[in-house]
Design goal:
This protein is 22% helix and 22% strand. By secondary structure, it is an alpha+beta fold. It has a single domain, classed as Jelly Rolls (Sandwich), CATH 2.60.120. The strands form two sheets. Strands 1, 2, 3, 4, 6, 9, 11, 12 and 13 form a nine-stranded antiparallel β-sheet that branches. It binds 2-oxoglutaric acid (AKG).
């Protein structure tokens, strides 16, 4: 694996384009540890994790093979805390962008399966989060830091993320439920806009603005496409955003030790 690298102008890219790419955010060893932990969670289904199997079509696949997302919003995994959320470069990056006191909103993995992995439709995370949240927190949500990390090579063949550069500067669009996995940006608005695939190597990451339009296409290849997002935010917005219960990741510039599950 190569060196950890954040573009010098990452802040400007985030502002202008709504995203930037980081190389080697987590090590090959951490990628392996996280993958093994996800395999364990899918096989053992311990309490507290959210495994998603909902689909729009019938593939005949069921059981563990049907799981395409694993959520650990309430920090039930010590392995994910130590190997993923508090990996050295993850902490360094969060300090650079968010400061010395940072909380984690949650983490979710997208274990897109080979051949049957469905597309995730165009959306803005802010809209999905806000649709069932209490009123009045939208402005603060702008400050969330969404970092999606590849757990293997992700590319055009196996359904890597696609983004629409600059789309975060527009409005939050009312999403519509068609036949996709969840509500999406009206399809007529997406047509004819410039989209960009974001291929990544294992351990690389893409960080995007919560208002940015993004999607991932199906995975018709024989390879899986695993990756996961960690969502963090500054401590001072926790109260305003009704998220003061979220786990403290960095306190006074230091990575926190594993706090245990938030809601047991
Ligand atoms: O991993 C994917 O395919 C989709 C991820 C995504 O859209 C998200 O985290 O908001």
């Amino acid at each position: 694996m190569g060196a950890f690298y954040i573009p010098e102008d990452a802040e400007a890219q985030f502002e202008e384009r709504g995203y930037f790419v980081v190389r080697n955010l987590i090590s090959a060893q951490a990628v392996e540890a996280v993958r093994s932990e996800l395999e364990r969670v899918i096989a053992e289904k311990p309490e507290g994790f959210r495994l998603t199997t909902d689909r729009t079509d019938d593939t005949g696949v069921d059981g563990d093979a049907a799981v395409w997302a694993v959520g650990d919003r309430d920090l039930h995994s010590r392995v994910l805390w130590e190997e993923w959320l508090t990996a050295e470069n993850v902490i360094a990056m969060n300090r650079r962008f968010l400061g010395e006191n940072v909380r984690v909103q949650g983490t979710r993995f997208f274990t897109k399966q080979a051949r049957i992995g469905e597309s995730v439709p165009w959306h803005q995370d802010i809209w999905l989060w806000e649709r069932d949240a209490s009123h009045g927190i939208r402005p603060h949500k702008r400050e969330h830091f969404n970092c999606w990390v590849a757990l293997e090579a992700v590319d055009l063949e196996n359904g890597c993320l696609h983004v629409m550069p600059g789309s975060h500067k527009g409005d939050v669009i009312e999403h519509v439920q068609y036949d996709g996995l969840h509500p999406e940006i009206p399809r007529e608005l997406v047509a004819e806009r410039t989209l960009e695939p974001v291929p990544l190597g294992p351990g690389d990451a893409v960080v995007w603005h919560a208002h940015m339009w993004h999607m991932s296409p199906p995975n018709p290849s024989d390879r899986t496409r695993w990756g996961g997002v960690m969502i963090t935010f500054r401590e001072e917005m926790a109260e305003k955003a009704n998220q003061a219960d979220r786990g403290m990741l960095i306190r006074n510039g230091m990575a926190c030790s594993y706090p245990g599950p938030i809601h047991k």
